[in-house]
Every structure is written in C-alpha cells, then in structure tokens.
Amino acid sequence: MVSSRLASRRSAVVALLGSSALAAAQPALAQQAPAEEQSDVIIVTALKRSQNIQDVPMAITALGGEKLRNLQVKELQDAVKFIPSVTIQTTQPGFSQVYFRGVASGENANHSGPLPTVGTYLDEMPITTIQGALDIHAYDIARVEALAGPQGTLYGASSMAGTIKIVTNKPDYAGTYGAVDAELNTVAHGDIGGVAQGFLNFKLSDRSALRVVGWYRRDAGYIDNIAGSRTYPVSGITQDNADLVEKDYNDVETYGARMALGIELDDNWTITPTLMGQIQKTHGSFAQERSSAVSKKLQTVQYNPEGSKDEWYQAALTIEGKLGNWDLVATGGLLNRKDRTESDYSDYSYFYDALYGSGEFLYDNAGDLVSPNQYIQGRDKYRRQFGELRVTSPQENRLRLIAGIFAQRQTHYITQNYIIDGIADSITVPGTDSDIWLTKQKRVDRDYAAFGELSFDITDALTATGGLRVYKYKNSLVGFFGYSDGYSSRTGVAACFDDPIVKGSPCTNLDAKTSDTGSIYKANLTYKLSPDWLVYATWSRGFRPGGINRRGGQPPYAPDTLDNYEFGWKSQIGAFTFNYAMYREDWSNIQLSFLGENGLTLIRNAGAARIYGVEFDLGYRKDGLTLGAGGSYNDAKITKDFCQFANSSFDCTIPGPDGADNALLAQAGTRLPITASFKGNALARYEFPLGNWQGHIQGSVNYIGKRRSDLRDAENAIKGEFDAYTTADFSIGVKNDVWRFEIYANNVFDSNGVINSSVQCLETTCGDPDGVSGTGGVFYDYAIRPRIIGLKVGRDF
C-alpha cells in the first residue's frame, strides 16, 4: 500500500513537470528584468521610501529577485541562511519563528503566548501571527529585506528586534511578458519532489497592467515512521503503530496564486489592488526522534496520524499620490488564515502513566480502563485587518518629515481537542465526542499608533534624524480550557464562572483584558565621508505588547522593550563593498514563556539581558566574478538571575506565592538560547560566455555555531544543546535571452544540523532524566533538509 502511494506520487510529479516544460516550449519574447536588477544598485524601502541600500543608515540585508533565484530560495527558511543577523526556528512548514541578533528567550509560539519579537511584512501589510511567519512561496519576488535592530518607530509592535519585508514584483506598464519555470529534485534518504510555476505581466494600456502569478510545489519526504509499540503500565494495554508505518512520510504540497492590478489615474496618482492566496498541506512529522526506540537519524515512532492544512488569502489596496509636492500613501488590507492540525500526543499519556499512574483515571462507561493514547486535533482561524495613512515631504528639502497613523486588529479563534478514544461520558468535556481536554478560545490583539520621523541636514554631509511612535494596545482572551468536572474538581468546567461566550465551549472559565499606552523613540546621526561612504550612530527602541496568562491566578504580562545602541558604516570602493555594524542591545522586562503544570504555557516578565554584537558583509563584483561574505557575532546573556517566581529585585531567595520555595532557574551571565554566537556565509559565482549562451558556476558555504536549547539550566541539560553545523551548496547552469537550465545541489555534504528540539510535556516528565519510566525520555529534533539535488528549466516569453 505504501509503495503504491509513493509510485503514484512520483508519477504525478513527473507528469506535472513534464507538462509544464512542454508549455514553456512555445515561441516567446525575452522577459524584461526589473530595473533594479539591471545594475549593481539595490533599491530598498526600509525607511518607507525608495533608496539605494548603501544610503540607508542602518544594518540591512537585501536579497533581490535574481539573487533569490541564484540561491535556490523557495521559502523564508532558505533565505535566512544568507542573512547573518537572522535565526529561524521551526517545527514544520507554516510554524516558524524568526529572531534577530540573539533576541530569543525560547518562546514556544503557543496560541495564548507572547507575540513574536520580529515583524513580517508582505509589501505594505504586516502579516505577523502568533503562529509565526506565513510560509510564502518565493517566486516572482522583487526582494527580501531584513532590517536588523528595533524598527518600532516606523513598524510598531512586534518589530521589537527587527523586521522582515517580502516585496513582490509590481505590475509593469512597459509591455506584456512572462515566464514559466519547472524543477525536478530528489532529497537524500527520501523521495522525489518538484516545482511548476509561472507569471504573466499583461499590459492593459499605457497606464494599466495586470500581473498574475501561480505555483505548485511538492517537497519530498525524508522522515521514516518506523514500527514501534509501548505498553501502558497501569492498564497493561499495548499500543502499536503498524497501520502508520511509512517511509518518507513528511511530504508537503504547496500551491497558490497572486494577482496585482496597477492603474495610473494620472501623472500623480496610482492605485494597486492585490490578491494573494496559498494552500499548504503537510503529512507526517518533521522531527527525528531521539529515544531508546530509534537508532538512526531521520526516523521517528508516531502512534497517531500527523499533518496539517494551512490556507490563507490576503487582499490589499495601496493608493499613492501627491498633495502638492508631498507624497501620500494610503494602504489597507485583510488577511484571513485558517489551519487544521493533527498531532500525536501519546508521549504525554505514556510518561504521566508510567511516572504518576494517571492511567488509573481513564475508563469507559462500564468502568473498564481504556488505552491512555492521546492525540490532538486543532483548528485555528485568524482574521487580521490593517490600515495605514502616511505623508512624506519632498526628499530634496533640507528638513524632511515622514508621518502617519496606523491601526490593526487580529482576531484568533482557537480550538484544540485533546482526544482519548472511548473514555466515559463523565470524564469527557461536555459537548465533545471524546475530549479529555478542550481549549476553545477567542483572542483579540488591537494596536493603534501615530508615528513620525524628522530629518534635518545640518550640513551637506551631516544629517540628524529623530523618530517617535505613540501607541495604544488592547488585548483580550476569552473562552474555555480544561477538563470536565468529572475528571477535575479544580480546573476546566469546575472553574467556570459564566455561560459559554465562545461558541462550541461548555462554559467560560477565562475572560481577561489588558491594555497600555506608551511611546518609543529613535535618534540617528549620519555623516557622509564621501558619496560612497557613510558612517552612522543610532539609538532606537522597540517594544512588544503585553498579554493574558490563561492560567487562573496569574496576572497579565506587561510589554517588554529593547534598546539598541549602534554604530556602523557603509562603503563602496570601486568593485568592493564593505558594510559593518557594532551594537549593544538592552532587553528589559523580558516576556519569558515556558510549559508549566498540565502543559500550560506560562508567561512572566522575569528577566533582563544585554547583547553585544557585530555584523558585516563584504562584496566584490567585476568581470563576471561575484564574491561575498557575511557574518554576525552575538554575545547575548541575561544580566539578572532568572527565578521560578519573578520579583522586582530578581532575588531567588524571596519565596513565591503562599510562601512557596523559589528556585534559581538560570543565573546571571547565562547565554540566551536559540541563536549561535557566530553565524556566517560565503559565496562565489562566476559568469562566463559560452557561445551564444552565458554560463555560470556557483558555490556557497554557511555556518551556524553551537546554541543552547533552553534558557533554564536544568531543561537545557535534559534536552541538550544544538551542535554547530556547516552546509555547502553548488550550482552550474546556462542561459540565453529565452531559455535557462541549471543543476544544483543544496547541503552537498548532507549535514544533519538541528535547529529546534521539543518534548510533548514538561522536560522533567517526558524527558525523564532519571529513567524512572524504564525507557528514558523522548525528544524531537527538527533538522535541516538533507541533501537535495535538482534540475531546473525555465523559459521567458
């Protein structure tokens, strides 16, 4: 059965790519490249206006559309390899967290937890959700911009540590053209995948154009779900996974489309409505298991079906024009996202049964014990609405202003069914079929702001800039979480105080709000030593809104802030570029999130940290040879003791609530987790004539150093640290004005670098460091994709 499924997959991919290649073989005209790719100049919009990247006084990395193609970038995770200041942590497609400059405390991205520290934008619209960045397929993308350091004055909440901007190619009034691209690839230890994608830019008139983009991608699986069994100690019931054993079972299908219409109303006013949507289906688990049941990498033993379906669409409208000689931009949009997930949760059941005898309380209507096997069926629905209006004074003026107002609202409907089949009605959460636990909540995050930056040319070479953002946020969380009152007399239904507010819940045991107003600032001095060399000094502040702790008795958590003190320069000497930044960042009132009792996430403002760092990029481009290197070093440590129960003096000898013993979880000087001290990359590419064609050969190498998995010492010791790893990529190809062919290999030496690790419950339980259960712990390590070799063919028309 499994082998026939694999054969059908291969046949479908080959047929799809074959038909795409035939479609590409029609007569065509040469594609027109975007203007910014016809020279060495990279134009960015980091300061919400178009500028040469070398004139922007901040640390910014930009990967243009041509470079994204050359580097085989299909998604954000691929791009992050070449952005030294950025780290990405993921559990599967669509569930990724991004970090800048070591500003990471180990957040678990729980639906009721803190917002991300990094904002993500698609063109003008913020698309950051609590689940993480949208997993946008990277095709027909103009560039990806990575803005390091707090971007609070212009980009607001959740751009505390930095901002990622994904900028799409706009409709082009110059003519009608397009392209079709196809790829077939194979992953080491795994299956066959591929991509079929294309775009059409259609000139409607001299002042209007339509751009349509579509893609289908299949990422091959490489994790094997191997045979296993376990016996639950209390009941003696044995469970196996024979019906789920499968090789390469973590495959992914991604398909979507984007449409943008550009209309020039006159010489001053333009409107651009856009619509983009994507569906992504995953199967299986993306983690290799570390346990006594598994002896090889890229294997796991899962006892329940796993997978997800993530679908979203974004509609946006941007109006650009002039009021006198001032520029005006009005933009707004809507993002709707929903996902369904299935997850194995049997480790939780097994270890609580083995260590604490919890299986004794799981029985059917006849009073007989049932298998404690547990799994999760989840459903999340997001709805984000956003609007911004801003004006910009003429850039040739000595005194320049950009100012605006901003508002957004995100509603998140949360459903998590924790299911144990066959349990008695008395211990089933009312209104569900067989839930031992139910989470049914509505979360709303609101953010309003007025912002501005004022620049003044003190001399022709020296410019001073000041920025301000005044904000108000209001966040709420309402609904139900917990057990039935027949299973627990303290939590869940037993703790309800009102009838159901959220549809589908049995009652309400959570209804809380938090809000705050405040302001953040920025100051910058920029000095031009020459037209090709500037130096700058910046102080900037970012913030992240506070939120709700859903566990009873826990207060809301407050905002945290990041202060950035930075000095840098940008220089270009002939064919060489050298950009450098050094900084200190002070992180205050850190929102620390971790799993507590019953696997509930707790968030506390319980820490302070400082980061000393440097980052650089070097480049050389001449006579067909391109060389580049970039790197970052971050010394990121907490500066106060991290206590189990937080207090204003960070003194772990002060008892907790009701005189409970406090504990030192990590002492001052402990490194922050997730981010390596050093991350670096190097690239070499040579382009050369080959008759009427142009050939190229390219190689790159990426290195990520050793990292802590957890801020807390005990948990870090249980899960273990992430080892350093190096990857190398290689490609060779040819192209002319119409056709292009390329062969590439990513992760040539098949590195098994780990970027994340998790357990299904408390590390001291599911990790079982003392081996009391007789099996030791079960850990899930999320490794980078193994070596992948691909063949690409494309045609412009």
Low-confidence stretches: 1-39
Main sheet makeup? 22 strands, antiparallel, barrel
Q: In angstroms, what is the radius of gyration?
A: 27 Å
Mean pLDDT: 90
Query: Which structural class should the secondary elements be placed in?
Result: mainly beta
Number of strands: 42
Estimated helix fraction: under 10%
Description:
- With 797 residues, the protein is mainly beta.
- The chain has one domain (2-796): Maltoporin, Chain A, CATH 2.40.170.
- The chain has a 22-stranded antiparallel β-barrel. Strands 3-8-9-6-7 form a five-stranded mixed beta sheet.
- The two termini are 43 Å apart.
Keywords:
single chain, about 800 residues, mainly beta, Maltoporin, Chain A, 22-stranded antiparallel barrel, 5-stranded mixed beta sheet, about 5% helix, about 50% strand, globular
